[in-house]
Specification:
heterodimer; A: mainly alpha; 1% strand; B: 3 domains; 7-stranded antiparallel beta sheet; 14 helices; extended
């Protein structure tokens, strides 16, 4: 005998079927919409691009082939500014010209020097960001600053600093400062102050308030409360965010360099656009190594500071 | 619970001082950190020559650039000829338009007879273009005015007054220029040749580098003026953006909004072939000083770059992450290969990929897209595989035990656990890529970043730059909000 459903169950079954149909319809519509959007986007991007994708694709390997140096020792020579046997006076093989002599015999190779400048820009910007960001964060945290008239402007100020793309800040400073690393420092620092300030004040707001109560009970002023109640608690987290920001800033200062702020980024852009194979590969290896080293070092330090749970994706 | 009284504490401290004494490092950590930071900052100050750069910087330029983000200027020139005839002219592309009658300027006209040296064939000023080449031929008469100067009656300006604010104005008459600000007065008599010699001492708001040189009078935010021997160049500044909707060569230029509205709804056709509405839209989109259509297209390129780059990265990272996850693919070699591949893509960095693809595909969104795709395949792959390694294995065991196919095990045992995480990570990257797309655009990958950077390099056009910055910030904000809303719905749904 076939099983019969009760009226109630039939109703439920019907509702369920209707809902499932609806859901399938939405899925189909959603996927269809996505496919149409993607197709339109790709078409638009291809139209807007200077070279069309399928026209350029065969030449892609030509360009990659151009970057292969004449012999692989050239990469080492380019990195350490050693004279090249292929030197014909052109910019492609003039490796020793970038040397910075410290003494008459000892020199710093150009790319390592520029890489150090880029790293130093990143470190200085992160330090500046941390100093100003921590001061701002204590002014913006609701548990340390009950005065709305201070808290509100501090938060909005950090938002404005964060919102401006660092290219704009760098471009603005480039327009009236002499060429040099300072526009890059300014741009990366300003962004860091905003970004770190936000992360810091969230740390401060989540801090344990008992030490603070103790200090207030014995009449500690605001500076003393920050120094003795808050700082010991938040310092490991601050340091962890400092290191995360340092990883981001190494990349950011390279990018700012590439758009006109000097440092290794600019050299990379020039050597790629001029088809200098050995130079390009030397810089890419140097950059790759530095980025990996900074990331690993910072991960190792953070693991010691706050444990594994504070590993956020670096973006 | 055991508690110590103060006496007990003191006695323990007396017997074993090392127990209560804080460690050396605990005491000196903070001062050492502060000292190291200070030393580092001083080192950077020296190595980057910051003090020198800051001292050599012209901060006035910085201020004037900054104020140009939100203001605009009209630049009339009042020229005063030696015979006392004055004229007020605006530059050709001044935002004030073709028929200027500004309310901050009063111009009084008069007619006068002017002796004008007629253009002679041997005019000294056009020596190079003389017909016949007589200039070089020996024996010809020296260059002399061949005809008498003609006398013409012309309408000229006899007095021009420019008001900068309620108590600041500049009055130009043929014999002198009078500048008033805050009750102080500066009189510059004219007709003494090219030298500018003010009568009396200069007020604080006027500046003259050398005696006889031009004088710059500043009126704060309302503008400034430059007084030369025979001309006054006015820079009259107003807040806002000039001609944001219709440019000076649009038919709608200079009309009030009600007039424009009237024209749009019921007015006669300005252009017989098109409706007024179409004309207005066209004039707005192709406004030459703001280039709305171009800016918006470039912005769309940037958005598309981030969208497609992230989407494709997620699509490619999805299967690769299954290979990289230790618990899904039980092969050490496959895991390590996939993971090192992800690390490589992430660490080569978006910058290098962007430069590389710009070189290969030319500037444009495809290059930016490819850069974002390559970097984020690595980042998303790493995050996806970590999510996969942290799943609960029980649903898979259950499915395997009832004899499900491997695909079905992944589909029903793994995917429901990780899909919300995958989608939310992808949305997060989409959001942050909308930001980065601007920056890699400036490196040559196209989109609004490139346009912005090119505008910045000219050091003029600051209002356009600010317009683009506002558009970028607005777009990033909108995408942040959308992505946040989607993510919170998604994680909320996962909890049900």
């Amino acid at each position: 005998m076939p099983m019969r459903l009760s009226d109630r169950a039939t109703l439920m079954e019907r509702h369920w079927q209707a809902q499932a149909r609806m859901r399938r319809l939405y899925s189909v519509l959603g996927i269809g919409g996505l496919i149409v959007t993607v197709a339109l986007s790709l078409w638009f991007a291809n139209e807007a691009n200077a070279g069309k994708f399928f026209d350029r694709l065969p030449h892609f390997l030509d360009f990659t082939g151009d970057l292969v140096p004449r012999d692989w020792l050239e990469v080492g020579r380019a990195m350490f500014d050693l004279p090249s046997p292929y030197d014909d006076g052109s910019l492609k093989y003039n490796y020793p010209e970038g040397r910075t002599y410290l003494t008459s015999a000892f020199y710093i190779p150009e790319y390592i020097d520029q890489m150090a400048i880029t790293l130093n820009i990143a470190l200085l910007s992160t330090v500046i960001g941390t100093l100003f960001g921590s001061v701002l964060s204590f002014c913006a945290a609701s548990n340390m600053m009950s005065n709305r008239l201070v808290r509100w402007p501090a938060r909005r100020f950090m938002e404005i600093l964060r919102a401006f793309p660092d290219v704009v800040v760098a471009g603005f400073f480039l327009s009236f400062l002499t060429v040099g690393p300072i526009p890059a420092i300014a741009a990366v620092s300003i962004h860091s102050i905003g970004a770190l300030g936000k992360l810091f004040f969230e740390v401060v707001e989540n801090a344990d308030m008992k030490p603070d109560e103790g200090l207030r009970a014995v009449g500690g002023n605001w500076i003393e409360r920050v120094r003795f109640a808050m700082l010991p608690q938040v310092l490991p987290n601050f340091a962890s965010y400092f290191l995360l920001r340092l990883e981001i800033n190494v990349r950011a200062s390279t990018i700012i360099g590439a758009v006109g702020g000097g440092g290794i980024g600019e050299l990379l852009r020039l050597s790629i656009s001029q088809n200098h194979g050995a130079k390009t590969i030397a810089i890419v290896i140097l950059l790759f190594g530095t980025i990996v080293a900074v990331d690993q070092f910072s991960a190792w330090l953070r693991r010691g500071l706050v444990g594994r749970d504070a590993f956020l994706p670096a973006t | 619970m055991l508690t110590l009284t103060a006496d007990q504490y003191v006695s323990i401290a007396a017997r074993h001082p090392h127990v209560v004494q804080p460690r050396f490092w605990t005491v000196w950590r903070m001062p050492a950190l502060a000292a190291a930071t200070a030393v580092y900052l001083l080192f950077c100050w020296w190595v980057f020559g910051i003090g020198q750069v800051l001292a050599n910087t012209n901060w006035q330029i910085a201020g004037s650039y900054l104020i140009q983000w939100v203001t605009y200027e009209y630049r009339p020139t009042i020229s005063i000829d030696r015979d006392g005839a004055m004229a007020v002219t605006f530059p050709r592309f001044d935002p004030i338009g073709p028929n200027p009658k500004p309310d901050w300027m009063t111009v009084e006209h008069t007619t006068m007879e002017r002796r004008i040296a007629a253009p002679t064939p041997a005019g000294a000023t056009t020596g190079g273009f003389m017909p016949g080449g007589s200039f070089m031929a020996p024996g010809t008469a020296p260059v002399a005015p061949a005809t008498e100067p003609t006398v013409r009656v012309e309408e000229v300006v006899k007095r021009a007054e420019v008001r900068f604010s309620a108590d600041a104005r500049l009055v130009a008459t043929p014999d002198r220029i009078v500048v008033e600000r805050k009750g102080e007065m500066l009189v510059v008599p004219l007709g003494t040749g090219d030298n500018v010699r003010p009568a009396g001492p200069l007020p604080a708001w006027a500046e003259q580098k050398r005696a006889g040189d031009r004088i710059i009078v500043a009126f704060g935010l309302a503008g400034w003026a430059q007084i030369d021997g025979g001309s006054v160049v006015i820079h009259r500044r107003f807040p806002g953006w000039a001609n944001f909707i219709f440019d000076t060569n649009s038919a709608f230029f200079g009309k009030s909004s009600s007039e424009v509205l009237h024209l749009l709804i019921s007015g006669d056709r300005l252009d017989p072939t098109r409706s007024n509405f179409a004309v207005a839209i066209d004039d707005f989109l192709h406004n030459p000083s703001w280039q709305h259509l171009d800016v918006w297209t470039k912005l769309l390129e940037t958005v598309v770059m981030a969208f497609i780059g992230t989407l494709f990265a997620a699509i490619v990272a999805f299967p690769l992450s299954f290979i990289a996850a230790r618990n899904i693919t039980p092969s050490w070699l496959a895991n390590q290969t996939a993971k090192r591949f992800f690390d490589f893509q992430r660490s080569v960095d978006m910058l290098i990929w962007a430069l590389f693809f710009t070189r290969a595909f030319g500037p444009g969104p495809i290059s930016g897209m490819a850069a974002i795709f390559f970097t984020d395949t690595g980042s998303l792959g790493k995050l996806f595989s970590e999510a996969l390694e942290n799943i609960d294995g029980k649903p898979r065991d259950g499915l395997t035990s009832v004899g499900a196919t491997p695909i079905a095990v992944q589909r029903f045992g793994v995917l429901p656990q990780v899909l919300p995480v995958f989608v939310s990570q992808t949305l997060y990257f989409w959001e942050s890529n909308t930001r980065s797309a601007t920056i890699i655009g400036a490196m040559g990958a196209g989109g609004i970043g490139l346009k912005l950077w090119e505008a910045m390099r000219t050091h003029t056009n600051w209002p356009n730059i600010f317009y683009m910055v506002i558009l970028i910030i607005g777009t990033v904000f909108i995408f942040d909000t959308i992505s946040n809303a989607l993510r919170s719905r998604l994680t909320g749904g996962a909890q049900l």
